Amino acid sequence: VPYQFEADLSLKRLRPRLDITWQQLGLDSKRAQEFEGRLAEHWYPLFGLLMELYGTRYDFFYHLERILVTTAEAWATRSPELRAQDHHRINEPDWFATQKVVGGALYVDLFSENLGKLREYIGYFKDLGLTYLHLMPLFAVRPGDNDGGYAISNYRSIDPRLGTIDDLRLLADEMREAGIVLVLDFVFNHTSEDHQWALQAQAGDPEYQDFYYIFPNRDVPDQYERTLREIFPTVRRGNFTWHDGMQQWVWTTFNSFQWDLNYSNPAVFRSMLEEMFFIANTGVDMLRLDAVAFIWKEMGTSCENLAEAHTLIQAFNRLTRIATPGLLFKSEAIVHPDDVVKYIGEHECQLSYNPTLMALLWESLATRNVKLLARSLSHRHKLPGHTAWVNYLRCHDDIGWTFDDADAAAVGINGYDHRNFLNRFYTGQFENSFARGVPFQENAETGDMRISGTLASLAGLEQAVEEDSEELKELAIRRILLLQGISMSIGGIPLLYLGEEWGMLNDYDFVKDPAKAGDTRWIHRPKMQWQYLTELDDHIASGTGSIRSRIFLASQSLITLRKSLPALSGQQMKIVDIGNPHVLCFVRMHEAHRLIVLANFSESPQKVAGNLLRTSGLGRFFEDAISGESVATSEPKQLEPYQIMWLQRA
Ligand code: OTU
Asked: What is the ipTM of this complex?
């Protein structure tokens, strides 16, 4: 064990401080044993991580003590319900990985106006089958543009337009009773320029100036710039913003009002830890770790995905194991697939967005060819134990083509050209494209861009509705359900971005709001239309159906079906080469359960040889769990345009 002697001695010296904390909190030492047991269990790795990050600081021991006290207080003030849940989850470390878990994400204001009203929709989530709900950032934000809530001015108060901390606690309680997991963001790479720490920095307090990266002139920023990318090039060139009041430069990776936190300062780590525990103790089950790639900077590097970023998250993770062990982390690393997976682990982030799968599903829809998707999945889907992918088709952000160029080359694709093609395809510039997306952060210099647009608009529904073509509508609906069918069966937690269940189209009105006009991602953040639900009831009563009702009912039954199929639990998945480049085939397995998925990514019918299905060792007769149709392996099987089948042994 590295630093074993130092770790032991430090803990011995810290023990009296811990006893004082228990006394101050009126806690008897018997109850504190729970905490101390977990502290002992995680102390060596935790100490090692903090030593790596801050061991050379003159004031290391001071910060160590404060980190420990913060953690002890967080545990001691955790509610009995949450502590009971912690115990339960320690004993069931894979509780989140079963097929019964299905997620949804939404903006509170756009969905239900506020947190109070959101409670009234718990029935809606249950009806749809959701057991996990990610609420987009809902904390207090700066006035005007707040990057969809990602410019936080106070992590302990809710945006007054949405409600109060008590509303959040109440919602968390009711969701827990309803069996729905609550997910919130931990926006820890940056704060808003009007966060208390930033205001103190602006007032000239050197202690708080050290919370951020602040420079008197361009010397150091220019040196950093040599190796940095630009993430939001249409907002501002470069990564630094001149602050008039301070007459200094501030590091701002994203918008100019989002100030990057300086984690090389242990006071920042300790302070954000306290904010994290505050959020956790409101009743949050999972924290989405925003922008993980950027949290550590080092001169001469890209300042993305550095080793210390992992050390930092692992340190946060160990502290949650001690104080709030029911809490999980979800990584938001929308980066190269080799880097995405490095954030995933029992002792780092137990969950991660799966941006590679997301991008390659869209890639396969555009090309009608699954070779790159299959190639990537064949060696990138497997994850370590007690972790899971979060599979999504669209989210509140743009689509970036983050696939691996070597994967592409292996199937004869040039990555650079292919990204250009995909950008043209999804912005509708490519002839015969069905997609209605728009560019996001187009970089005039590099020609680089990302794509905005809703699932339905990108899948062709917007075009079909405009052209009023029944045939095109049918194809678009099938594309939507095909992608949903994959996301629900590939292995991991499927995450719907709410609105998708209705096939909601792009909303072009965002440009009318000056705080949103400069950011095309608002095109795919439409307001929920509750009349759809009334229409649905009418449709069910009359036996007729609109496009929206059809998408809703089909999504709902896919979710119900997924939950009933134990083979869809966990991650285990094997790609099968079925000899048809338009058809993705994989086998899902969990314990003794098996399921074969066949998915046709083209608008023409496709045949697959029946005997190939037999090689899966699952027998000769199957039933498609989606359509109920029987399939015999003695003859070739024809898949309809964009059809997906979940084949069970009959
Ligand atoms: C995240 O995304 C959020 O999801 C965005 O909504 C925020 O605007 C941003 O951080 C700042 O808080 O650049 O286009 O992984 O792709 O972290 C989205 C790298 C983003 C980035 C990602 C970031």
From this structure: 0.93
